[in-house]
Design a protein that fits this description.
CATH topology of chain A: Rossmann fold
Shape of chain B: globular
Protein name (chain A): Urea transport system ATP-binding protein
Strand order of the largest sheet of chain B: 1-4
GO cellular component, one term (chain A): plasma membrane
Largest sheet of chain A: 6 strands, mixed
Helix content of chain A: 25-40%
Keywords (chain A): ATP-binding, Nucleotide-binding, Transport
Low-confidence stretches of chain A: 1-49
Mean pLDDT of chain A: 80
Mean pLDDT of chain B: 90
Radius of gyration of chain B: 21 Å
Oligomer: heterodimer
Order of helices and strands of chain A: HEEEHEEHEHHHHEHEHEEHH
Largest sheet of chain B: 2 strands, antiparallel
Radius of gyration of chain A: 19 Å
Number of helices of chain A: 11
Strand content of chain A: 15-25%
InterPro entries (chain A): AAA+_ATPase, ABC_AA/LPS_Transport, ABC_transporter-like_ATP-bd, ABC_transptr_urea_ATP-bd_UrtD, BCA_ABC_TP_C, P-loop_NTPase
Strand order of the largest sheet of chain A: 6-7-8-3-9-10
GO molecular function, one term (chain A): ATP hydrolysis activity
CATH class of chain A: Alpha Beta
Chain lengths: 304, 366
């Protein structure tokens, strides 16, 4: 598996910290044949032309505080506090209706909270931005049901997702350059779909669609990946490959995984957050979580 | 150049070249044959073919917005009619003094006892102004309408119903004499265009020829659009709009762009249509007209531009034949055609053509 190229990482805010060790490692291993420029290849849209570099000086790439959302009186999210560190792989679990998907909707701008704060780094207030702007900032999202462009080929799916100037008039005359083709090829390798690039995405298997969707996120050079139930409906082997893929992405990206499959969570998680009724119930390693009486009660004792 | 050539497969270019030769060369030649020749194309068929070219242009516009972007408009008659009225206003103004009343005003205004030209008729004595308005008025209306509809994220059947309401409302407005566009009768009895008498067969042939050229040019333009990254984003919006948004695109602007372009193309078609058929009236704004436009595209095959051309030609060819041979049957035939295609040919006639071509498997995009 080829190494992913380093995403443009600011020197300043990170300081000398070792928050992103994999980035430094990635620099050395970049293939010399196709040097990947360290800056965005095309100018970005006016509203994010200077893609704000998130200020992660306090360690957090995503920060939610006191968030509340109610739908018709039902409190889907109830005073939620959550902080995700830069480069972290975080698993979020919780029973149905715990607010996991709503939380992702809030982060990606799909749902506006009734109150609370949502920050990207220290300075970017996500509540002021639209979905597309948040995506342009580098927050990618994978849906529960694999959502790819069925009529397009695998290659075109990745091309469309690639970080670029995504305004209408640019799209009319956009042509791929060699560097961009190399990048697409590289992501094809990462998601294990090399050789499938000409196939229509609609013809892929369920697992392949899930990987393609993850590949589409990677094309956006995201800082944060929000991944909703990545292994639902996957075979055991596909699940294992997905676990490997997500673990390899952490460090370079912050990865937040919402998942029901406990064995899968155990296999990838370093830190787990348990949501319950729109609120953080517990946080810690998988062992700590499983020993936590409150968690046991929510998961096992609901009827008791 | 190579990028342009790659818009089509070799078979595709061959078909396009054949169509071009047929429309631009064969039709005038057959028309020029002596009248007693078996292959002679009678004069009365020339404007009919010109009309078909305009309808095919509408079908292309419809395909861009519906076939490729997945937005079903049931109000494209509005843009077609507005383009037509703009051209009709020029034709009315250019015959000032030659009407029944020998007045400088159009006849219907004399009839209504109006003493001077309403403000919105000014400028239409200039061809360039009318031509500009034929594109600008549909474009601006579509832009404003689309801005509010798409920004409110109105989709699917709701959008279709609103467009249907739009064309109905405009029809009622244009039916009124006070609106100032000839009311029920519309604009008709045209005499000349840029000094050429519209009664001359040569002028009719010329208008047909221009319509065919415009159609073929727009077809190539549309091919270039759907093969660009812009076109791929449109198809992506059709298939998974939320994914497009979370990829960092603003679907609003893409939809607005293609919607407005589609409306402008319809206006162009309307402007070419009116001098050839010699009349524009509010019946073009009837809801069924707009629905029929959608049927052309559906019958030909959505999401394939060649299908739009084929559908418009087939449906209108059948319509012309049936309304002469068995007029009472036409609506049943149209209904049966639509139901049949929906049930048995989801990819339309073009899908059937592709299926019947041996040795060719389904391509991602032809």
């Amino acid at each position: 598996m080829s190494q992913q190229p380093p995403i443009p990482v600011p020197a300043g805010p990170l300081g000398g910290s070792s928050a992103l060790p994999a980035v430094a490692a990635g620099l050395g291993e970049a293939p010399p044949a196709a040097p990947v420029p360290a800056v965005p290849r095309e100018p970005l849209p006016a509203d994010v032309r200077d893609r704000p570099v998130p200020d992660v000086s306090h360690g957090a790439i995503l920060y939610l505080e006191g968030v509340n959302v109610a739908f018709d009186g039902f409190k889907a999210i109830n005073d939620l506090d959550l902080s995700i560190d830069d480069g972290e792989l975080r698993c979020i679990i919780g029973p149905n209706g715990a607010g996991k998907t709503t939380m992702m909707d809030i982060i990606t701008g799909k749902t506006r909270p009734d109150s609370g704060q949502v920050y990207f780094g220290q300075t970017v207030n996500l509540l002021e931005l639209r979905e597309a702007q948040i995506a342009q900032l580098g927050i990618g999202r994978k849906f529960q049901k694999p959502t790819v462009f069925q009529g397009h080929s695998v290659f075109e799916n990745l091309e469309l997702a690639m970080q670029a100037d995504k305004r209408v008039r640019r799209s009319l005359f956009a042509q791929l350059d060699a560097g961009q083709r190399a990048r697409i090829d590289e992501v094809l390798g990462i998601i294990g779909l090399r050789g499938h690039e000409r196939r229509p995405a609609g013809a892929l298997s369920h697992g392949q669609k899930q990987w393609l969707e993850i590949g589409m996120l990677l094309m956006q050079n995201p800082r944060v990946l929000l991944v909703d139930e990545p292994v639902a409906g996957m075979t055991e082997q596909e699940t294992a490959q997905t676990a490997e893929l997500l673990v390899s992405l952490a460090g370079k990206h912050s990865v937040i995984v919402v998942e029901h499959d406990m064995a899968f969570v155990r296999s990838i998680a370093r830190k787990v957050t348990v949501l319950h009724e729109g609120h953080v119930l517990a946080e810690g390693t998988m062992d700590q979580i499983q020993a936590n009486p409150k968690v046991v009660e929510v998961y096992l004792g609901e009827g008791a | 150049m190579r990028g342009f050539l790659s818009l089509h497969t070799r078979t595709g270019w061959l078909a396009f070249a054949t169509l071009t030769a047929l429309l631009l060369i064969a039709v005038p030649l057959l028309n020029a044959l002596p009248a007693d020749s078996a292959l002679h194309l009678p004069d009365y068929l020339v404007p009919l073919l010109g009309k078909f070219c305009c309808y095919a242009l509408v079908a292309l516009a419809m395909d861009l917005i519906w076939g490729y972007t997945g937005i079903l408009s049931l109000g494209h008659g509005v843009f077609f009619a507005l383009g037509g009225y703009s051209m009709g206003m020029y034709l009315m103004r250019s015959m000032a003094g030659q009407g029944v009343y020998r007045s400088q005003l159009p006849d219907f205004m004399v009839f209504l006892n109006w003493k001077e030209l309403p403000w919105f008729w000014h400028g239409f004595d200039q061809f360039w102004f009318a031509a500009l308005m034929a594109l600008a008025v549909p474009g601006v209306l579509a832009f404003v309408f689309g801005w509010f509809a798409f920004r409110s994220r109105i989709k699917g059947v709701y959008f279709s119903i609103i467009t249907q309401a739009l064309t109905f409302a405009l029809m009622l407005l244009f039916f009124r004499n006070e609106t100032g566009f000839g009311g029920n009768n519309g604009l008709t009895d045209f005499k000349q265009l840029l000094g050429f008498s519209l009664a001359e067969p040569g002028v009719k042939l010329g208008l047909y020829w221009i319509s065919a050229c415009v159609l073929l040019t727009v077809y190539l333009l549309a091919q270039a659009i759907v093969h660009s990254k812009f076109g791929r984003v449109l198809t992506a919006i059709r298939d998974a709009e939320s994914r497009v948004m979370f990829c960092g695109y603003e679907p609003l602007y893409y939809k607005l762009a293609v919607w407005t372009l589609s409306a402008v193309l319809c206006g162009l078609a309307g402007a070419l249509y009116v001098p050839q058929v010699g009349i524009i009236n509010p019946s073009e704004l009837e809801p069924t007209q707009s629905i029929e436009m959608a049927v052309w595209t559906a019958v030909g095959g959505r999401g394939t531009l060649a299908g739009a051309l084929l559908g418009a030609a087939t449906v209108n060819g059948l319509k012309s034949w049936f309304t002469v041979a068995a007029p009472e049957l036409w609506l049943y035939v149209l209904g049966a055609l639509f139901v049949g295609v929906t049930l048995f040919l989801p990819q339309g006639l073009i899908g059937l053509v592709r299926r019947l071509r041996p040795g060719k498997t389904e391509e991602v995009r032809a």
